[in-house]
Amino acid sequence: MAKVLCLIAMFVVMLGVVHSHTYHSGSCPSVEPMPGFNMKQFLGIWYAIQKTSTASTCVIYNITVGDEPGEYRIEQTSQHFALGLTPLKHEYSYTGEISVPDPDVPGKMRVKFPLNIAGSSSFTVFMTDYEQYAGLFSCQKLGFVHRRSATLLSRTRDLDKIFVDKMRTRLSSFNVDPFDLSIIDQTGCPKNTSQGVNIHIDDDTFSAHSIANVFRKAGEKIGDGVEYAVDAGKKLYHKVSDDDKDIASTVATVSSDKAKNMVNPSGENDAEWVRV
């Protein structure tokens, strides 16, 4: 049952990519980044208080320095809304890469997540005081339409209404409807996720090496099953042979040479032949 739930988990995670965004015609709205933005002060843990069209709970972001200068990593951890409908204990984490195309405008960045097959999207910090609240806006052009997402962040699991209203008003000034935002439940969030299933999606998840490991492990399981079946068959065959040994000896006596030929037509003694 647990294996079935794990497969369901991976399936609903793939489907969940379409959430947390709204779709609109035309180009992305112009959302101005915060002047004088300082990424170093912005790093660390942020709790999502409100986010565009999501039913996920306990959403947390951890922004850290990347491997290369001007690159950063963002990990989103949450309780996935679809998995929450199952009895499966889980933690869903999703890691992306943040880049700064123009160092002169550090608040206007790009982010790329593994499951976003359309490529990177904008990642704009439109306001923050670094210590209490922050507002993010992300948008991606898709042909004649675009998809957008806004997130209101807090350094703690709750945020004073005055800061929430301040960020929602700013979004409205950019022609982004703040009523598209969903309130994220940050209560009763798991503090220890060592039990259950931890689903982590990053750049290595769908690499050739990772996929090969999946098939390799599957092959090992199939091989183990075959070996088990063969061993069970041998035990059954020898048991039947032992039980019938005395009966067979009373029916006929066969010369050793002839017996060898009946057991192994090729004359080799390292294999048994069972005729049906």
Automatic annotation (TrEMBL):
InterPro entries: ApolipopD, Calycin, Lipocalin_CS, Lipocln_cytosolic_FA-bd_dom. GO terms for molecular function: lipid binding. GO terms for biological process: brain development; lipid metabolic process; lipid transport; response to reactive oxygen species; tissue regeneration. Residues 1-20 form the signal peptide. Belongs to the calycin superfamily. Lipocalin family. Residues 103-175 form the Lipocalin/cytosolic fatty-acid binding domain. PANTHER family: APOLIPOPROTEIN D (PTHR10612), APOLIPOPROTEIN D-LIKE PROTEIN (PTHR10612:SF49). This is Apolipoprotein D. One of its GO terms (cellular component) is cytoplasm. Keywords: Pyrrolidone carboxylic acid, Signal.
